[in-house]
């Protein structure tokens, strides 16, 4: 695939479901989450992330908020659901950028960007996710989370090497704030009533993705951030609200010399809308209509009898 690839698309995903165990979740299909990456330190998975374009990975700030971590310690694994696979792609990281007002005490502005050392080559298994742009849909048709984190909160050995997924429903913000008083307007909540689907340790930084209607593009509406525990029934998880950071992402990537624009990603350069001159030609009721017809007739007459 060339540079004209679109975001939020899953060309080889066939929609089959193999039930398995994220917390209470299912095993993801090949090509179902082609934007999903594993962020690793010294070859061990510790957080998730998503591909924005050929240079940038989106993740959570709290994943990287450690003085012991530097870009040279990190690697980005992509193009596979299985972290033991030999066919994965691996990228080095050259820069870690936190939101400057990230607060560990209440997890506000839990967002970060990673700049990779060489451009990502897109394929059917490696593709960028779309980010929401205005106007934001008032309701999403379907939402999912995915990750390689724990499948059981209390089991330190339940970290998965296969990518897991779970369906999500966005929770009303006011209702969620009753459960989580420190919730800010930069956060959103999602869960699945009467089920134990949830993100857990190791899933942080990964995406909450949604589509506005069947067959349309997928958008990352949230970043897995924090919660009360993993998989508690009727207790939603907390996500960074991605739509609040459109300007931040654009500004930061521009300053780093690798600009990203969410709207441009949704219209690949090879598929720009065609310009229609007919749409600009005045209608019969417009005086310019007759003037242009006369002018066109004159030009044609000159061409024929030149």
UniProtKB/TrEMBL annotation:
Keywords assigned: Disulfide bond, Hydrolase, Protease, Serine protease
**CDD domains reported for this sequence:** Tryp_SPc
Q: Where are its TM segments located?
A: none
Q: Does the keyword Ligase apply?
A: no
Identify the residues that the record assigns to the Peptidase S1 domain, covering every copy. Answer: 22-254
| Metal-binding among keywords | no
Per the UniProt record, one Pfam family is Trypsin
What is any one GO biological process for this UniProt entry? Answer: proteolysis
As given in the record, the signal peptide range reads none
Which InterPro entries does the UniProt record give?
Peptidase_S1_PA, Peptidase_S1_PA_chymotrypsin, Peptidase_S1A, Trypsin_dom, TRYPSIN_HIS, TRYPSIN_SER
Which GO terms of the molecular function aspect are on file? serine-type endopeptidase activity
Q: Which SUPFAM superfamilies match?
A: Trypsin-like serine proteases
Which PANTHER family did the record assign? ACROSIN-RELATED, HYALIN
* Protein name stated in the entry: Serine protease 55
Q: Give the organism the record lists.
A: Tupaia chinensis (Chinese tree shrew)
């Amino acid at each position: 695939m060339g540079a004209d690839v679109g975001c939020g698309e899953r060309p080889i995903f066939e929609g089959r479901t193999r039930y398995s165990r994220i917390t209470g979740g299912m095993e993801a299909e090949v090509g179902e989450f082609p934007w999903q990456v594993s962020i690793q330190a010294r070859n061990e998975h510790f957080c998730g992330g998503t591909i924005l374009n050929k240079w940038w990975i989106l993740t959570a700030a709290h994943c990287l908020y450690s003085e012991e971590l530097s870009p040279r310690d990190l690697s980005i694994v992509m193009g596979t659901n299985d972290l033991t696979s030999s066919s994965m792609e691996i990228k080095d990281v050259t820069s870690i950028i936190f939101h400057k007002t990230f607060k560990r005490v209440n997890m506000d502005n839990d967002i970060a960007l990673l700049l990779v050392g060489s451009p990502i080559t897109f394929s059917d298994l490696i593709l960028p996710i779309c980010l929401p742009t205005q106007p934001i849909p008032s309701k999403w048709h379907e939402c999912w989370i995915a990750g390689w984190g724990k499948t059981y909160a209390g089991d330190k050995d339940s970290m998965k090497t296969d990518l897991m997924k779970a369906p999500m429903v966005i929770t009303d913000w006011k209702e969620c704030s009753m459960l989580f008083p420190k919730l800010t307007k930069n956060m959103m909540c999602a869960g699945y009533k009467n089920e134990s689907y949830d993100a857990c340790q190791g899933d942080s930084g990964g995406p909450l993705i949604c589509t506005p209607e069947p067959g349309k593009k997928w958008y990352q509406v949230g970043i897995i951030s924090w919660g009360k525990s993993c998989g508690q029934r009727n207790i939603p998880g907390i996500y960074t609200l991605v739509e609040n950071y459109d300007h931040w992402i654009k500004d930061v990537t521009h300053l780093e010399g690798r600009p990203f624009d969410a709207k441009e990603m949704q219209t690949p350069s090879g598929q720009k809308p065609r310009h229609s001159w007919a749409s600009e030609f005045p209608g019969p009721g417009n005086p310019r209509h007759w003037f242009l017809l006369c002018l066109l007739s004159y030009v044609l007459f000159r061409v024929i009898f030149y």
